[in-house]
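Sample 1 of the test manifest.
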Amino acid sequence: MTTIARQVRLASRPVGLPQESTWRLTEQELPALEEGEVLVRVTHISLDPAMRGWLNDARSYAPPVALDAVMRAIGVGTVAESRHKSFAVGDAVTGMVGVADHAVLPGERLQPVDLGRAPAPTWLGALGMPGMTAWFGLFDVAAAKPGETVLVSGAAGAVGSVAGQLAKSHGCRVVGIAGGPEKTRWLVEELGFDEAVDYKAGGIHRALRAALPDGLDVYFDNVGGEILDSALRLLRLKARIAICGGISAYNATEPVPGPAHYMSLLVNRARMEGFLVSDYAGRFPEATADMLARIEAGTLVTREHVVEGPLEAFNDTFLMLFSGANTGKLVLELKPA
Amino acid sequence: MTTIARQVRLASRPVGLPQESTWRLTEQELPALEEGEVLVRVTHISLDPAMRGWLNDARSYAPPVALDAVMRAIGVGTVAESRHKSFAVGDAVTGMVGVADHAVLPGERLQPVDLGRAPAPTWLGALGMPGMTAWFGLFDVAAAKPGETVLVSGAAGAVGSVAGQLAKSHGCRVVGIAGGPEKTRWLVEELGFDEAVDYKAGGIHRALRAALPDGLDVYFDNVGGEILDSALRLLRLKARIAICGGISAYNATEPVPGPAHYMSLLVNRARMEGFLVSDYAGRFPEATADMLARIEAGTLVTREHVVEGPLEAFNDTFLMLFSGANTGKLVLELKPA
């Protein structure tokens, strides 16, 4: 029995925002499994800002997605066929399945997920890469301590919404930045942020200074740009900036200015540090256990923005990240058109 | 017996480079000493890039020099009169004496210096604030390790020349950046740097890439600007940038762009950290002992650029820092006109 996989491949490297013409939908007959391989029927595809970086032909932490290759993406699915001893047909798994409805992977590159404890989208959000990113970025890279003031940008996104809640439960004062009154209200009223600043309302530096009258000890940065520069001006002594992302520049077609106030790092003996969650893979079980416990205790609100649709919906769904259309973790749940 | 002090005071805040009109020379009759105070006859005045920052009316790590106040400066001098039990007439001391030929300070704010072990200018250079800055910046902030590649800017200056030599003796490969062939030759031939790049020769990024084909683990930054941005592009995994200064922007009259390639910190899981040597004051004895031992063993080359002149020579001497006219530690040795 052969399987035909439908796949979204990279047709051309985008300049600025990806477009429909960036992609090409293909059908491929998958080869028979080799020993150790697993066939996954993909049910949920994760949309992450970092995916934009993978489209550029530039040296980075991961090689770019090659032209004509299946677009790289994390997903959740069901084992449809297995030649790996750890996986049986029907098991729920997660891994780098790509933007496709079926994928063949070595079993070593899949992890089981327990859909009885959390639904698939949550395994791509708080219990997946974004949640791990928040956990290690906040506790390890930024080393937030109780009593400190923490600023989070992209705070209504998959990573920021978790980072802010973790900081709050850790005894920090937490200020979030998000776009629009609906998101800022959600941060304060549902997630327990102390304050939220709407960057779309304008006057961002003045607003941040008002929300942070005594400055900040930790800035968890998902956006870069003007907001990072503003945060630099608000550093307290020995402050830490964790550079998690810089979505404001991901689709730039012109050179983007750097943070002009970086010398505030000197004045305040502060540091700015970049990190990649994949470096912490060995410690994911520790963080996952902690996150599951928080979710089951009701102390961590998880939210996913699930778009149902076929693979053809991939580009439009992906673009929601850059217009700020999603609140919480953005997921494409594969459904026939 | 009263003492008339000649003093250089801040007459107006400079925009761009300081000028003669920035300063006013005054004579002041010093009051009789109170208990615990010491009268110092100043012999040597330290010229440091950081002094430029103290002229700006901006929140920083130290309050700005007030208008009409004596310009802040470190110096070496001789005790002329003492009402402090730790100091006797004739003792050599160092401290924040200001740009003046005489100063009264509380004894607690003076440190003795041993002119039998090193001359006064060296106590303002390798054994003074610049040497301490190099020592703690390299070993503590940047945490340079044997076998790593270290890039130093301002490498022919007071801090950079020491930082590079410390890195070399620590087992690092060391590349220095300085202005002009005389300085770069000095770095390689006299100080033992592995390579030196002349930033005045143009094409700085290409030159740095050639000197650092495998990138850098540590960048000790004294200059900021385009060179910092270039260094960011050359980071290796887990690299550290110690932000010690940013002299390229100190006299800027227009906003200066920030380091556009800061996202290299993320890609390379690297960090950029600012520091102030004053935070390490409690550990100065440890570093001073190490530096004295290196100097006496002949393993650390110290060099001072001593300008002899009266206080009237202060502005011209200070400006040498910004044109790159000095090699090594710049000192004004007070001599009558």
